[in-house]
């Protein structure tokens, strides 16, 4: 019998959340640290650009999100391909190594160009680390509880974004915009690299185990999606051709388009209304906090109720929240809107990943996740560019209205084009391995 690959667990492999509870929990912790690396910027960086570097044009100020989105989107694709080719753990470690200099560059940046460089590295790091933790969790749990697994993963990541955004707001209020808020990032990078190197185990063999026991859907869907797809075929199916995969990809793009808006322009909108940095930090934290906690429930609910209408309704709820933000002018109303935006995003985020896992064959699922995340995180770049151009031309509120309309339209596309991916019936999720 051949020896297991380096870093793999020598015990017989089993699929399931309970059977892999220790490794799954460790990966949840690692993804929380990944989220913390992103959260260190949510409150502070837009204000840093405006107050320390004198950026007055919205488009210029949003360049850090633009380069972050482009870098992360491209790296997501690479992460999926490399995870299939070389294994998950090496990709995870590479992501943490790239993360180490990010907070240091933000602390010492003498010009906005250094901040741009830091966000290129942050995008590469997030693409490698977050994509890999998603893929590894899908590997471990098998087909029956993907929604719950993705809910736990995204809850940990965005819960950490929220807590870090809140903490950095208070640190910035007390000690200034630099260096105190970014010292959290130094600690997160050190912990993430250490845990990933010492304790995380390779999970690629779990995907191979699931592929070996794959049972086709009884309704005949996905029969054309056999296991031997080229990289180009995976890209085309996920991006354009396969109705559920491509619907998920466009919804993911639009979801992160409005997240890019929230990240880059909301702090400036709130500051313009006279809110303090600490109160801006509360609002910046509230949205990802509800998003994070909500995913503990929405991912599991999508395992019971299905994916399609959870996604469509979540996009429409986000659109309503953006409309409230566009018309409101005080902390209380914005807090309600931020909570609604977080709830809508919680309905969408883990459910989209679970839908990709439902449709994609285990043999090319990591690549499909990478393509989906390429489009989804490309939304950061599209959102930064669109929101910046519209805000410069017509004002911040006009940018919010524009993104609200796009988000509502995305929900319509899901409602019209996507089919229910969480199939119930013979050979389905409820009765055995299913893709």
From TrEMBL:
- Looking at the keywords, is Chaperone present? no
Superkingdom field: Bacteria
Please give the SUPFAM superfamilies that the UniProt record associates with this protein. Answer: MFS general substrate transporter
Protein localization: Cell membrane
The regions listed as transmembrane in this protein's record are 21-38, 58-79, 91-109, 115-136, 148-170, 182-200, 260-278, 309-328, 334-357, 400-419
4Fe-4S found in the keyword field: no
Q: What is its main location?
A: membrane
Where does the Major facilitator superfamily (MFS) profile domain start and stop, copy by copy?
Answer: 20-422
Entry membrane topology? Multi-pass membrane protein
Give the keywords, sorted.
Cell membrane, Membrane, Transmembrane, Transmembrane helix, Transport
Spell out the PANTHER family in the cross-references. INTEGRAL MEMBRANE TRANSPORT PROTEIN, RESISTANCE PROTEIN MDTM, PUTATIVE-RELATED-RELATED
This chain belongs to which protein, by name? MFS transporter
């Amino acid at each position: 019998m051949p020896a297991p690959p380096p870093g793999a667990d020598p015990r017989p492999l089993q699929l399931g959340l309970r059977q892999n509870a220790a490794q799954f929990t460790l990966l949840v912790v690692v993804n929380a640290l990944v989220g913390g690396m992103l959260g260190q910027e949510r409150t502070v960086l837009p204000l840093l650009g405006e107050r320390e570097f004198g950026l007055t044009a919205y488009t210029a100020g949003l360049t850090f999100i633009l380069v972050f989105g482009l870098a992360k989107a491209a790296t997501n694709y690479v992460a999926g391909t490399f995870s299939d080719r070389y294994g998950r753990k090496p990709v995870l470690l590479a992501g943490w190594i790239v993360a180490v200099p990010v907070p240091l560059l933000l602390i010492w940046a003498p010009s906005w160009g250094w901040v741009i460089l830091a966000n290129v590295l942050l995008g590469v790091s997030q693409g490698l680390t977050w994509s890999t933790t998603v893929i590894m969790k899908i590997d471990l749990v098998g087909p029956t509880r993907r929604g719950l697994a993705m809910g736990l993963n995204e809850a940990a990541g965005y819960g950490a974004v929220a807590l870090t955004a809140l903490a950095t707001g208070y640190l910035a209020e007390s000690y200034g915009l630099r260096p105190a808020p970014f010292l959290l990032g130094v600690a997160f990078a050190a912990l993430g690299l250490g845990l990933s190197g010492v304790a995380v185990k390779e999970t690629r063999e779990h995907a191979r185990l699931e592929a070996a026991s794959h049972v086709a859907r009884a309704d005949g869907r996905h029969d054309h999606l056999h296991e031997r797809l080229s990289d180009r075929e995976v890209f085309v199916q996920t991006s354009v051709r396969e109705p559920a995969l491509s619907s998920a990809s466009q919804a993911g793009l639009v979801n992160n388009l409005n997240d890019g808006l929230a990240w880059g322009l909301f702090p400036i909108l709130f500051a313009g209304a006279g809110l303090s940095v600490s109160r801006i930090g509360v609002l910046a934290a509230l949205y990802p906090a509800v998003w994070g906690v909500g995913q503990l429930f929405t991912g599991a609910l999508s395992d019971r109720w299905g994916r399609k209408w959870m996604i469509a309704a979540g996009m429409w709820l986000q659109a309503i929240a953006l409309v409230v933000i566009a018309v409101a002018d005080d902390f209380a109303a914005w807090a309600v809107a931020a909570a609604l935006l977080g709830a809508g995003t919680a309905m969408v985020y883990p459910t989209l990943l679970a839908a990709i896992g439902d449709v994609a064959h285990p043999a090319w699922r990591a690549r499909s996740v990478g393509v989906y995340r390429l489009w989804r995180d490309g939304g950061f770049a599209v959102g930064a560019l669109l929101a910046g151009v519209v805000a410069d031309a017509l004002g911040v509120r006009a940018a919010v209205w524009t993104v609200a309309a796009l988000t509502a339209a995305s929900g319509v596309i899901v409602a019209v084009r996507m089919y229910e991916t969480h199939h119930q019936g013979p050979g389905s999720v409820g009765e055995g391995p299913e893709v």
